[in-house]
Specification:
Blueprint: H1 19-31, E1 54-57, E2 60-63, E3 72-74, E4 79-85, E5 90-95, E6 100-105, E7 120-122, E8 129-133, E9 138-143, E10 148-153, E11 168-170, E12 175-181, E13 186-191, E14 196-201, E15 216-218, E16 223-229, E17 234-239, E18 244-249, E19 264-266, E20 275-277, E21 282-287, E22 292-297, E23 312-314, E24 319-325, E25 330-335, E26 340-345, E27 360-362, E28 371-373, E29 378-383, E30 388-393
Antiparallel strand pairs: 1-2, 3-30, 4-5, 5-6, 6-7, 8-9, 9-10, 10-11, 12-13, 13-14, 14-15, 16-17, 17-18, 18-19, 20-21, 21-22, 22-23, 24-25, 25-26, 26-27, 28-29, 29-30
């Protein structure tokens, strides 16, 4: 029985054994018009999300997907990455614990195909990241446990070559970050376990120089993310153990300043992500152990305020990933251990509301990924430990639903 309703999510008792039954019973009775709507105020993180989107009550299977909208939508297990496809009005959430990628309507934040199950597509093992190519209508998901990158149809979720195996291409060990260059028809994959960035044909999946080895270029130690600057023809790779970000030519893979050392710039401690603001010519690196985000000149690698310290701004605990909203001149940083997202001025690093506390907004447990939709004024934050999706107003930080 499909309920076809929106859920307003807040708190309920913490008994994991009782909540799934209470939840199902409340929904069943409310759907018949016999119980107050207040019964629907439930918190997804307070129960075992492996029972979603459906729970079994006696012999009745109740589908909880419905319209699927709310401030903490249920995702697959261990969501770790959010990618927006504005051209198709789709949001993709990569679920590392369930080996799936889920498609949502980016405006209503409802499941693209009506239910979580129908809107989720199987990836390789332990996917940590994704990128979308609207030009080729392809979605790329890297699979750290399978050492592959998988190509999907970005609209339907179908495998690009018919099957998972045929649509997955070998990488070096532990692929973790991915970016696409539609104009050059190139795909970049960084491999955490191999200290490499590999260049692939973005439509066929073939390594550009014939083999994975010949198409790979040495990074710093344990690279975790890559981003493209199409206008400057540069890709940036952040190296979590080297505490550096490296600049490469986006077409050839050559170091922009001739050598790895000369093309690498010091970050804070344990950088995990990198993001570009092309409009302001700024590069941002959140430093997980350093509890800061550092601003660089995107062309030269120079610190925007002269020194690392002066160009780094305090975040919540363990900043993991971030997003840029050029239209609102804001950046957003997810703080994994604080379970918050922080809003900062994108050019000055000032807190949006004056202080770190006032500019940080509560998410679900252990947020990792993040994406912003300037057109809809929405900010999406997947919560890894809660297996939920938080949605905020992208300019105020208020709950969007």
């Amino acid at each position: 029985m499909s309920l076809g309703m929106k859920l307003s999510i807040s708190r309920c008792p913490k008994s994991r054994a009782l909540i799934p039954v209470r939840w199902a019973l409340c929904l069943l009775i409310a759907s018949l018009g016999l119980f107050p709507a207040a019964c629907l105020h439930l918190e997804p993180s307070s129960f075992d999300t492996s029972q979603d989107p459906a729970v079994l009550l006696g012999s009745v299977l109740i589908s909880l997907s419905g319209t699927g909208s709310g401030p903490n939508l249920i995702t697959g297990s261990g969501p770790c990455c959010a990618i927006l496809n504005s051209a198709a009005n789709l949001l993709y959430i990569v679920n590392s614990g369930s080996n799936t990628v889920t498609f949502y309507n980016a405006t209503t934040v409802s499941y693209a195909n009506g239910t979580l199950a129908a809107s989720s597509f199987t990836t390789g093992s332990n996917p940590p990241g994704a990128a979308v190519n609207p030009t080729a209508n392809l979605l790329y998901v890297v699979n750290s446990g399978s050492n592959t990158v998988t190509f999907f149809n970005a609209t339907t979720g179908a495998y690009a070559n018919g099957t998972l195996a045929a649509s997955s291409f070998a990488t070096f060990n532990s692929p973790i970050g991915v970016a696409v260059n539609p104009a050059a028809n190139l795909l970049y994959v960084v491999t955490y376990g191999s200290n490499r960035v590999t260049f692939y044909n973005a439509t066929t999946g073939a390594p550009v120089n014939g083999t994975v080895a010949a198409s790979s270029f040495t990074t710093g130690s344990s690279p975790t993310a890559v981003v493209l600057n199409a206008a400057a023809n540069v890709i940036y790779v952040v190296n979590s153990f080297s505490n550096t970000v490296t600049f490469f030519n986006a077409t050839t893979g050559a170091y922009t300043n001739g050598t790895l050392g000369a093309s690498s710039f010091t970050t804070g401690s344990n950088p995990w992500y990198v993001e570009l603001n092309s409009a302001a010519n700024l590069l941002y690196v959140p430093n997980a152990s350093g509890t800061t985000v550092t601003f660089f000149n995107a062309t030269t690698g120079a610190y925007v305020n002269g020194t690392l310290g002066a160009s780094s701004f305090a975040t919540g605990t363990y900043p993991y990933k971030m997003a840029v909203n050029s239209a609102s001149n804001l950046i957003y940083v997810t703080n994994y251990n604080s379970s918050t997202v922080t809003f900062l001025n994108a050019t000055t690093g000032a807190y949006m509301n004056g202080t770190l506390a006032n500019s940080s907004f509560a998410t679900g447990a252990q947020p990792i990924g993040i994406a912003v939709n300037p057109t809809a004024n929405l900010l999406y934050v997947p919560n890894n430990a809660a297996s939920t999706l938080s949605v905020f107003n992208a300019t105020t930080g208020a709950s969007a639903f």
